[in-house]
Write a structure and sequence with these properties.
Helix content is about 35%, strand content about 15%. The radius of gyration is 22 Å and the shape is elongated. By secondary structure, the protein is of the alpha/beta class. Helix 4 packs across helix 5 and helix 6 crosses helix 13. A 6-stranded parallel β-sheet has the order 5-6-4-1-7-8, sandwiched between helices. It starts with 15 loop residues before the first strand and ends with a helix. The mean pLDDT is about 95. The structure holds 3-phosphoglyceric acid and magnesium ion.
């Protein structure tokens, strides 16, 4: 059976390495500083292991969703943060690797100076990244003898730097990738029961397949956020001027029917915190019910805040969920997703959560499908 070989299972010494990471960090409100650099920190074990073995690194990442070159999405600020962690090395940002006289692959990579790490500018500055351009893949591949993927958070994207390079070069998985796969896999293969999943966030449309899958595997599926509003509307409840998706009502009805048919429990909020006709958080009764169910779980998966947590008046529901997860010391818990991470950032006792994933969409798709394009491409 083909499988991934990870960097700690082989000797990789003195090599030129293309290392794909996910440095798609969140910024502070004024967009001038990094708000949460977890994704950078989590990639350090792989980077340090490779450096220890005298390898030359060409680090590839995306940042945001630029369509083309756009200084707002430069990796400069990320390179500066990385520099703070790797102070014995010099991080050199390569503005345009396709047209750089500084590090053409044939120039011997300044082999004399092993203390340099090359960080290629945002890979999404090149539209070819997304179109899986063959020529572009070759140009990029020319920089390395080996490709390593430590970018779990973007493994659901079928692009050159995630999939194409893995097929072109000898390819290995990094330590973060290994940690994520090993931590999340038990949730959908062999969870201790009861498995309780909590899904919030804004849109049913982006999570419909995930909800189906969770409906199949969970003993209880708790739904909050604007997704719950769509379910409420599907149940013919008056949701006032709340955020919901009118074009998803039929999907929501079907989901309710499917999950109920399996005998599994879909738990929708029975009350809401309402302001100006808008449902903005799950209400006190629902908070109590969610708390009780979570406290009985043996496995917990949480993705998506259950209320409009950006306003402290409506963060209680999400806080109740977090507290219930932290207090349940018998359960194996996995938490992930961009908004969820933004919500829990800096809160105490996060070490009581078994696994906090660096993946948002990637984690959800991994649970839903059991694999991801970036993972498949590494299997040899
Ligand atoms: C993420 O933040 O979800 C990952 O970095 C992937 O980014 P993307 O959703 O823009 O592809
Ligand atoms: Mg995403």
């Amino acid at each position: 059976m083909s499988k991934i070989t990870y960097v700690d299972e082989v000797e990789i010494v003195n090599k030129k390495i293309l290392l794909r990471v996910d440095f798609n960090v969140s910024l502070s409100e004024d967009k001038t500083t990094i708000f949460d650099d977890t994704r950078i920190k989590e990639s350090l074990p792989t980077i340090n292991l490779l450096l220890k073995n005298n390898n030359r690194l060409f680090i590839i990442s995306h940042f945001g969703r630029p369509k083309t070159r756009d200084s707002q999405f430069s990796l400069k600020i990320i390179g500066e943060r990385l520099q703070q962690y790797l102070f014995n090395y010099k991080i050199i940002l390569i503005d345009d690797f396709l047209h750089s006289s500084f590090v053409p692959p044939q120039a011997g990579l300044r082999q004399d100076n092993k203390k340099e790490i090359f960080l290629l500018e945002n890979i999404r500055f090149y539209p070819q990244e997304k179109t899986n351009d063959e020529n572009f893949t070759n140009q990029l591949a020319a920089f390395g003898e080996i490709y390593i993927n430590d970018a779990f958070g973007v493994c659901h994207r079928n692009t050159v730097s995630v999939v194409g390079l893995a097929k072109k070069l000898p390819a290995y998985g990094g330590l973060l990738l290994k940690k994520e796969i090993n931590a999340i896999t038990p949730v959908f293969t062999n969870p201790q029961k009861p498995l309780v999943t909590i899904v919030g966030g804004a849109k049913i449309s982006t999570k419909i397949n995930l909800l189906k899958k969770l409906g199949e595997i969970s003993d209880q599926l708790l739904v909050g956020g604007a997704i719950a509003n769509t379910f409420a509307a599907a149940n013919c409840q008056d949701v006032g001027s709340s955020l919901y998706e009118p074009d998803q009502l039929e999907n929501a009805r079907q989901l309710i029917a499917e999950i109920n048919a399996t005998g599994k429990k879909l738990i929708l909020p029975e009350d809401f915190v309402i302001k100006n006709g808008k449902f903005l958080d799950i209400g006190p009764q629902s908070q109590k019910r969610f708390q009780e169910i979570i406290s009985q779980a043996k496995t917990i998966v949480w993705n998506g805040p259950v209320g409009y947590f950006e306003d402290p008046k409506f963060m209680t529901g999400s806080q109740v969920v977090l507290d219930a997860i932290i207090s349940n010391s018998q359960a194996y818990s996995v938490v992930g997703g961009g908004d969820t991470l933004a919500f829990i950032n800096g809160k105490p006792n996060l070490d009581k959560i078994s696994h906090i994933s660096t993946g948002g969409g990637a984690m959800l798709e991994f649970i839903e499908k059991g694999t991801l394009p970036g993972i498949e491409a590494l299997k040899k």
